[in-house]
Amino acid sequence: xxxxxxxxxxxxxxxxxxxxxxxxxxxxxxxxxxxxxxxxxxxxx
Length: 45
Known about the structure:
about 80% helix; mainly alpha
């Protein structure tokens, strides 16, 4: 994983959260569901 300066990291995090604000509610719920579904699988490995 590439190293990011703290200022770059903060900028990327803010941009990611801003994109979630403009995402449709349906898409946001689907992403949340899939993230929850993937969590138990990652613990098995």
